[in-house]
Prior knowledge:
The structure is a single chain. This protein has helices at 8-12, 21-32, 45-52, 85-98, 123-136, 161-171, 202-213, 228-233, 245-250, 262-270; strands at residues 2-6, 36-39, 61-63, 68-71, 76-80, 103-108, 112-117, 141-142, 152-160, 177-185, 190-197, 217-221, 236-240, 253-255. With 273 residues, the chain is α/β, with parallel strands linked by helices. The chain has two domains: 2-80 and 200-270, HAD superfamily/HAD-like (Rossmann fold), CATH 3.40.50; 85-197, Hypothetical Protein, Haloacid Dehalogenase-like Hydrolase, Chain: A, domain 2 (2-Layer Sandwich). The strands form three sheets. It has a six-stranded mixed beta sheet. Helix 9 (245-250) links the parallel strand 13 and strand 14. The longest helix is centred in the middle third of the chain and has 14 residues, at 85-98. The chain is globular.
Amino acid sequence: MDLVVFDLDGTLLNAQSEISRYTRDTLTMLASADIAFTVATGRTLHGAHAALGNELFVLPQIIKNGVLVWNPNSDTYTRQCLLTQDEISLVLLAFTNAGVSPFVHTFEQGHHHGIYHAPAMHEYETKLASFIERERGAALLPLNAMPPYAPIANFSGLGSEQAINSIIEQIATEPHLVAYGGPAFEGQNLFWLDVHHCEGNKGAAVMELKRELGAERVICFGDSDNDLSMFAMADESYAPSNAKEAIQKAATEVIGHHDEDGIAHKLRELYSL
């Protein structure tokens, strides 16, 4: 059997961060044909659910770039790649040196996901905090309210390209950490950043899921650097035409734009839907 894995933003989702009607119809046909599919996203669980809904995606979902895998059937996490105290200190220092206010994502008792934020230094950080609160339906907490030694899954942030690249360069010297970044809001010269344990990558999580499901082949769709690890282990990988150049070069084939149902059109071709 095939296991089809989708990145979300810039791939399965359109420019409005939604699954279009045509793509949703295609996924319904994919499910009717008994083709297994799921997502591998950098989003939080709340962020993924806001885009996906609850009907179509029934298999375990890879979130936070492979740091966590959530099983919707049992409402449990089958994979956790958390940071050590030394790694946490290094990441916080890198954010401080770059002048970026971190969002700290915890994984606490009872599968509670906390997000704690240092005092915002820029208006766009305040706007991002408000957006996350609306998405989660719960308030963010100040960093000084975080429980001592809380299990931390990852750090995220928003800043100028220079500031984000500075953090990425600092993290690059640490063998057990990985940092991803990219343009956040078109025209605003803002870049997003995500930092987590090196074993928390999409490729490793997809491999685990492949073994658990007994899949023979993996077909991946993605558009950014955090998708390269799953492209490397996939039997076939497809990049929409809006993908980064490096992703297009790594892909089996470059397909249609994410905002023109490129992934859905390719699925219908691959599986004669």
